[in-house]
User: Which sequence fits this backbone?
């Protein structure tokens, strides 16, 4: 059995990325019910909202699901306590050091996975004792590594230095990419952007439509001075570029970013003033579909391509 399937008790080694404003209980439970591992994205949630989301997810699925906790957001202590109290079995941490919470979570029987974008932080994650790591190439949407290492380079690089399971992320939206990631040494894949264009995703329909109409070159990794993030190009992105052209410093960029940009864009649907976080694979997404159909499409394509290779 695949190590990721065994670790989480799931049918397919497919993890849905815990995306802020996009990954509520509807998406997470749908992915889990379809055979993957759904993740609630807690980064955009106050503690009471997270607790309610977990309770609703437990009602909607009997399958395993998890919570993604970006460590750069406030209320982390409260979030950690809530996932323990609610009996969540899987936690993905990101955007910070896994050392502080891993052992505490594991002492409550929780599997801990940390998201990294470089060999240095993969090794730090192993030292922290995590159960698996997500190795995320810079093709991915949202917060990202400043090193700009592509998934194709990152996965074998990480696989050569760690023994724990490795989950590939970044640029994976279909079965062919999933097969390629596994050929590079990954034990499973994490898919984010493809699930934005799903019926169950909590993103605004304006953002979903923007994703399915995206062309190549419409995203860029920027704001490295704050926290590197891959965004779709829009009015807000152009303001960032203008700020750089005017030699903006870190504080200038922080003021420009302000608060709530991601909510404005992805959840409320303001496509000009909002922060639209999505990966390069958006250029390949052409249709909003139910989660079950997306996962079937991915697994069918994976199997068809795998059989082609076997027959060579």
Assistant:
């Amino acid at each position: 059995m695949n190590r990721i399937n065994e670790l989480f008790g799931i049918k397919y080694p497919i993890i849905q990325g815990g995306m802020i404003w996009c990954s509520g209980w509807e998406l997470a439970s749908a992915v889990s019910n379809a055979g993957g591992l759904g993740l609630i994205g807690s980064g955009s949630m106050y503690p009471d909202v997270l607790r309610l989301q977990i309770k609703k997810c437990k009602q909607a699925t009997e399958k395993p699901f998890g919570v993604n906790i970006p460590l750069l957001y406030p209320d982390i202590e409260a979030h950690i306590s809530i996932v323990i109290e609610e009996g969540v079995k899987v936690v993905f941490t990101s955007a910070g050091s896994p050392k502080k919470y891993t052992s505490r979570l594991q002492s409550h029987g929780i599997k801990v996975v940390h998201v990294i974008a470089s060999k240095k932080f993969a090794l730090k994650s192993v030292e922290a004792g995590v159960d698996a790591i997500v190795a995320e190439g810079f093709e991915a949407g949202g917060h990202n590594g400043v090193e700009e290492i592509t998934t194709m380079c990152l996965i074998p690089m990480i696989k050569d230095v760690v023994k724990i399971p490795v989950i590939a992320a970044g640029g994976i939206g279909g079965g062919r990419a999933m097969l390629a990631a596994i050929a590079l040494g990954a034990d499973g894949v994490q898919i984010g952007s493809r699930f934005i264009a799903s019926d169950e995703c909590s993103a605004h329909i304006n953002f979903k439509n923007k994703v399915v109409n995206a062309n190549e070159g419409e995203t860029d990794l920027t704001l490295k001075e704050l926290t590197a993030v891959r965004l779709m190009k829009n009015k807000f992105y152009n303001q960032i570029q203008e700020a750089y052209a005017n030699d903006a410093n870190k504080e200038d960029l922080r003021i420009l970013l302000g608060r709530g940009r991601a909510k404005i864009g992805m959840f409320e649907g303001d496509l000009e003033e909002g922060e639209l976080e999505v990966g390069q694979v958006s250029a390949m997404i052409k249709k909003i579909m139910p989660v079950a159909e997306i996962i079937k499409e991915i697994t069918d394509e994976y199997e068809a391509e795998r059989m082609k290779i076997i027959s060579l």
Remarks:
- Residues 174 and 298 are 5 Å apart (CA to CA).
- DSSP finds 14 helices and eleven strands in the chain.
- The longest strand covers residues 65-70.
- The longest helix spans residues 291-310.
